[in-house]
Amino acid sequence: MGHQVIIFDFSLIRGLWETRVKKNKERQRKEKERLEKSSLEKIKQEWNFILECRKKGIPQSKYLKNGFVDTDKKILNDYGKTPQLQKKRALPDEANKEKDKFIFHLSGEQWTEFPDSLKEQIYLKEWHVCNTLIQTIPAYIALFQDLRVLELSKNQINHLPVEIGCLKSLRVLNVSFNNLKSVPPELGDCENLEKLDLSGNMEITELPFELSNLKQVTIVDISANKFHSIPICVLRMSSLQWLDISSNNLKDLPEDIDRLDQLQTLLLQKNKLTYLPRALVNMPKLSLLVVSGDDLVEIPTAVCESTTGLKFISLKDSPVETIVCEDTEEIVESEREREQFEKEFMKAYIEDLKERGMCYLQSTSCYLGYKCRNTIGTLTFKRISNISLNCNCLLH
């Protein structure tokens, strides 16, 4: 008895497969077209284009037409060929080499501690250390009496040594997105400090009173931590111009916040504020105020009056989906990444606002707006959908 031979008609299977592939490609094409036409994709393209223009030193007037961004690629190409930019790129190598002698750079996850040779280079004026696994700052940092810039962002640093108070020439201290839980009182001895960035450490709850001695500080960023109130030492920094205390646990602001009479920018978004004190009206130089509108019920009427010249921005906090994960370190890391992205976006957004010199009143279908109703000296917000009225503010 012979063998049975089973013959399949592969043309049918091939036809079914080709039909499925064709439908899948069609779905991908439609999805791509939908994304290209969506407003979010357009906004993303515009922001990327603006950042590229800024990197190349292209003035805003070149890519803005009637307030809208012109994303013509010729702008980037043509400006790159101008003699002005070529001249800027043609800096003498000798000058750059001379400058680099005083700057220390270190990055990469292969670094778990500072190199031993660093202690011999006490003439350095700047440290730029980022994206490493370094956990501690060596005590010999006290020897670097000429150090002016200490940039230590995105590492694993878990504490600041008391020797940091010996850096009398220090102007900039950036230890953002590390693992700090506290700050030593000795930092208050850095009397020439002008910029202090402690953002993204996620665990700092208070600052020592000794930081009140930092009378030269103009910029303080303590966002993405666990502050329940603005530290008293910050209120005593008489030269402060920029304060970012967003993404904390603030429920109210101190009534004497107006003692910061030099403050120009106050970022308060992603807190639990329900009202703003009237003292904000008494801050003559305050030009930019950013809050989250989710819990905000009342603000002083004068804050929204156009005569004050204050740009008042009320942001809608987007709910973040919580993913159940056994490893809490992964959750913290994802929060840090999100905070870092939001900070970069806000920085670019604020810079763009300042360049344009104006404040827009907007409402979009993906956010809740607010309807303003005058009461005695305040504005009470009632939520309704997709409407924004009667404020000198920008709603997103």
Automatic annotation (TrEMBL):
The keyword Repeat applies. SUPFAM superfamilies: L domain-like. Keywords: Leucine-rich repeat, Repeat. It holds the Pfam family LRR_4. This is Leucine rich repeat containing 2. InterPro entries: Leu-rich_rpt, Leu-rich_rpt_4, Leu-rich_rpt_typical-subtyp, LRR_dom_sf, LRR_domain-containing. SMART domains: LRR_BAC (SM00364), LRR_TYP (SM00369). Gene3D superfamilies: Ribonuclease Inhibitor (3.80.10.10). GO terms for cellular component: cytoplasm.
